[in-house]
């Protein structure tokens, strides 16, 4: 269901997709942000993983999930990759809506329009407990 909803969004936005990436990734949630990292869409799994509903996070930045044990070096690595519009992978200590911590493996890839220009980012997120 999640992948079908994402494919509908991709069609609407005109993104060029390699759909095989979904078969190669292990994820609990998907997050789409614009190039400024403002959340535009999350999958149903995001709410199960974080406790936040889509309506609570759309318009926010993923940093709302960060807290005192979120690695500064990992955040800087992610920021640099996103500035350069290139894929990045990292493991972060994030925080749920209720304040409890969890480890999360994220894989972020740029999404490209037909013009070959990146327009958004897609994050595959996997809770590691």
Structure summary:
Keywords: Chromophore, Flavoprotein, FMN. The protein is an alpha+beta fold and 129 residues long. The chain is built from five helices and six strands; from the N terminus they run H-E-H-E-E-H-H-H-E-E-E.
Order of helices and strands: HEHEEHHHEEE
Radius of gyration, rounded?
14 Å
Shape: globular
Name the poorly predicted regions: none
CATH fold name: Beta-Lactamase
* Rounded average pLDDT: 89
Q: How far is the N terminus from the C terminus?
A: 24 Å
Structural class per helix/strand content?
A: alpha+beta
Report the strand count: 6
CATH homologous superfamily placement: PAS domain
SS field, number of helical segments: 5
What is the beta-strand fraction?
25-35%
CATH architecture: 2-Layer Sandwich
The main β sheet shows up as:
6 strands, antiparallel
Count of domain modules: 1
Domain PAS: 28-85
Organism: Algoriphagus aestuariicola
Protein name: PAS domain-containing protein
Keywords: Chromophore, Flavoprotein, FMN
Give the key terms:
129 residues; PAS-like_dom_sf; PAS; Beta-Lactamase; 5 helices; 31% helix; alpha+beta
Describe the model.
Keywords: Chromophore, Flavoprotein, FMN. The chain has helices spanning 2-13, 20-24, 44-50, 54-57, 72-83, and strands at 15-16, 29-34, 39-42, 88-95, 101-113, 118-127. With 129 residues, the protein is of the alpha+beta class. It has one domain (2-127): Beta-Lactamase (2-Layer Sandwich). Strands 1, 2, 3, 4, 5 and 6 form a six-stranded antiparallel beta sheet that branches. The radius of gyration is 14 Å and the shape is globular. The model has no long low-confidence stretch (mean pLDDT 89).
